[in-house]
Amino acid sequence: MYRESIFVDTGAWVALADEDDSHHKNAASIFPSLLKTYKRLITSNFIVAESYILILKGLGHKAAIDFLDKINSSPRIIRIYSTSDLEREAEETLKKYLDQDFSYTDAVSFAIMERQKIKQAFSFDKHFQTMGFVRVP
CB neighbours (10 Å) of residue 50? Predict the structure, then answer.
């Protein structure tokens, strides 16, 4: 039986794409089990944009386009688009946590996860734990 959803962060997508990434082996070994465990892999247009540019800069145009093709071809990867409401929530998070160095994308991701009632993130970013989410791995 599938669990409902897990959020996938930029670092996980980049680690999957880049064999030289310090998290690649861990990401590549865990990803197949996530596909078996979760019905939907949730990400955002901000995450896709960040991942694309990092893959483009690190691995080149072909790898970046391959990343987009994989995201777009999977019916189980759901891209949630940022809205003004999500961004207002994100900005409130950024104002509230002055002691943290959350990125804007992080804060939008947290808002998406809260709205979607997603508790787990496939991420190597400690900020997800800081906000009370469970990081996988």
Answer: 18
Report how far apart the first and last C-alpha atoms of the chain are (Å, whole number).
20
Helices and strands (H and E) in the chain: how many: 7, 5
Residue ranges of domains in the chain, CATH in brackets: 3-83+121-128 (3.40.50.1010)
Q: With cut-offs at 50, 70 and 90, classify the pLDDT of residue 1.
A: low
In tens, the pLDDT along 2-32 reads 689 999 999 999 999 999 999 999 999 999 9
- Tell me how far apart the alpha carbons of residues 70 and 59 are, in angstroms, rounded to a whole number: 16
